[in-house]
Amino acid sequence: MTLAPQLTSSRAVAPSRDASRTLVATGVNHALHDGYTDLIYVLLPVLQAEFGLGYVALGLLRTLYSGTMAALQIPAGHLGQVLGARNVLVLGTLLSAVGYTVAGASGGLLGLCVGLALGGAGSSTQHPLASAVIARTYGRSARGPLGTYNFTGDLGKASLPPLVGLLLTLLSWRMALWVVAGMGVVVALGVGLLLPRDSTSPAELPGKATTAMEPQRTGTVRTGFWLLVAIGMLDNAARPAFLLYLPFLLQEKGAALTTVGLALSLVFVGGALGKAVCGRLGERLGVTTTVIATEAGTALAILAVIALPLAPVLLLLPVLGLMLNGTSSVLYGTVPDLAPGGRVERAFAVFYTCTLGGSALAIPLLYGRLGDAVGPSWAAAAGAVTALVVVPIMLVLSTHLAKRATVQQPLPR
């Protein structure tokens, strides 16, 4: 008897009640943390008036939260292996709530910075650990649920910042932060109640996964994983590289500011739908077909936005948003398949660190400078080229995915 068939069968089916509770808990948690990450955009004008900050300082405040979150993904994955994913998810959400409590209670800029750093540290836990919990719970059927989980983050981005904007008309900004901090405490309690207590599997611990997965050809899996990371970095760079210049492209076509706001909403609505749909498409059509279709479609749609007049561009933007964001759900769903040594938490942590960090560096250092040099149209076209670069890398990765599928087949007894 071999270990490979046992591993496959144990991961193929999850109890439906536990699976549903897991997806609800991680989805609500994802919505909260993504909302926490983006609500600072609403606060920036208030903070500028409060502390007399320039635009560079405001940008640094934004980076303080997101940068801390990106830098601590891998340590959060390690902590999840020691304390359990469920416990660390609860503690991380509480820490983010504490961060916004500190930021609201701060009497000066230093306290605000400390609060934002604490919030980013807490948010670093949810991407790698929640993704790994879903992958483990659903097994080989995880691609669709991971897409749903990915979609819930967009719900948080779409709901929490506007809520804070409304609170700012009724309360001081400090009290508004205390309200959202209270929401974090409620969500943390919900995660603790809903997530199954056995959400960390012994198979995730170092030393055990490698034994069970020896037939998978570790070198092939590692190469495939890093190809997947490269695709994720390119996809995550192409998206903001285009969105950075979309308002300027629209203004060149005669769009008013209200039309620019509508256009961005159309992209985001399509993007949320893409995250929900493309994970399921990856299950039906296959990873390679789906990724190539979405990236090639993204490139063509970006070029069409550059070339077409305003009216057809507005009609095209939801479709562009679907493809622009949809690839990420397919990539997230592939991480467990290529996790080196079967260490899913660490694989997700590395993936998120590289994709988020790479995008944060590429936008100001590469695409920002390119826009200054050649203008928004050519810089947006560079985003289309970035998306197309994914295609040949995906074709190479497909051979590794095929080998991975072969070694996952039950071995003869």
State the separation between the terminal residues, measured CA to CA.
6 Å
Number of domains: 2
Q: Whole-number radius of gyration?
A: 21 Å
Q: Regions with pLDDT < 50 over 5+ consecutive residues?
A: 1-14, 199-216, 409-413
Mean pLDDT: 80
The CATH superfamily label of the largest domain reads: MFS general substrate transporter like domains
CATH architecture of the largest domain: Up-down Bundle
Instruction: Characterize the biggest β-sheet.
Output: none
**The top level CATH class name of the largest domain:** Mainly Alpha
Shape: globular
Tally of strands = 0
Give an account of the 3D structure:
- The protein folds into 2 domains: 3-200, Growth Hormone, Chain: A; 214-407, Growth Hormone, Chain: A (Up-down Bundle), CATH 1.20.1250.
- The protein is 84% helix and 0% strand.
- It has helices at residues 3-12, 16-38, 40-51, 55-71, 73-83, 85-105, 109-123, 126-138, 143-170, 173-194, 209-212, 218-243, 246-252, 257-285, 287-307, 310-334, 344-374, 376-407.
- The longest helix is centred in the last third of the chain and has 32 residues, at 376-407.
- The chain is globular.
- The protein starts with a helix and ends in a 6-residue tail after the last helix.
